[in-house]
Amino acid sequence: xxxxxxxxxxxxxxxxxxxxxxxxxxxxxxxxxxxxxxxxxxxxxxxxxxxxxxxxxxxxxxxxxxxxxxxxxxxxxxxxxxxxxxxxxxxxxxxxxxxxxxxxxxxxxxxxxxxxxxxxxxxxxxxxxxxxxxxxxxxxxxxxxxxxxxxxxxxxxxxxxxxxxxxxxxxxxxxxxxxxxxxxxxxxxxxxxxxxxxxxxxxxxxxxxxxxxxxxxxxxxxxxxxxxxxxxxxxxxxxxxxxxxxxxxxxxxxxxxxxxxxxxxxxxxxxxxxxxxxxxxxxxxxxxxxxxxxxxxxxxxxxxxxxxxxxxxxxxxxxxxxxxxxxxxxxxxxxxxxxxxxxxxxxxxxxxxxxxxxxxxxxxxxxxxxxxxxxxxxxxxxxxxxxxxxxxxxxxxxxxxx
Length: 402
Known about the structure:
The structure is a single chain. The protein has 402 residues and is mainly β. It has three domains: 4-192; 210-333, Jelly Rolls, CATH 2.60.120; 337-402. It has two helices and 23 strands. Strands 2-4-9-6-7 form a five-stranded mixed β-sheet, with no helix packed on it. Strands 14-16-22-18-19 form a five-stranded mixed β-sheet, with no helix packed on it. It has a five-stranded antiparallel β-sheet with strand order 15-23-17-21-20, with no helix packed on it. Strand 20 and strand 21 (296-305) form a beta hairpin. The protein is elongated and about 105 Å long.
């Protein structure tokens, strides 16, 4: 599963600008493992957390995290720090990346966004055109330290040993004043550039869908699923990947089908997305609509279903998220029109059926000795209406009900 953590730099104590030995003041970001499935958003900018509203000076801030499984291709790690302001005044930031023994691994100096990347070398979405994996092919298991410093190459010094980072400038962080304030964030984006996973769910491809019948509840998960369905009808972020599972539904009667998916736990990160297809390898023909029911978010997809026709449905998650999801298709059968033997005398087609139909439509009685149907000929619950007359003559002519 893709792990993405965004950490506000406005939540720790500002350090002095002088050089020092092993950091004594840092934020511990916890442990991470390389994901098995493709990333949700390889740009790593899906979430933004808030900061505190107390002015402070950013000089050098330290962060520590732990890699619990060796990171190497096809997995990757992207570390990015970004400054933003309401007054469009540029601010340089720099990154310095150290191992657990204080040895410098990589740096990037200057710019309102500084970035480092390790692991798989894949094309990055940044406007600079820089690739991921450019700062190292692997990251062994262990602890790592990241310093975020105000200033660029003319201000920041990152010595090769002893976690030694200093700067001769600072950046004022003041969210109370939108004209001079800066919000600075540090983003960790773990992803996987492998387009396929060999351990996905049984219904991971269009060729191996889970067959469901009317009202059958599927309780499963999209964890470790691959991305092979067309979700373009949602017009997603070009770097967003929908990791999907597939379903096949063949109704025994015609009617209105409602395919729905919702999370099994309201606290889950995954928001389901549904798309319908006419055949494998073809573009999607319909996207579902998001709904919230009793606090539980989900997606519904409603379509007219014809008896005996197979419908393919892919279930994914927005922002590439996966997790436990429920899926179900419920059909409301189409009742259809009455028989053309309107007066139920077992003689049809005949002129008397037409006469009795219009007599009943006008509020009159059925012909003597016969029992006529009601005037709602198409059984849609709306009567009297022109459509009943139209459908009556369609059926009289040998056609199907509208």
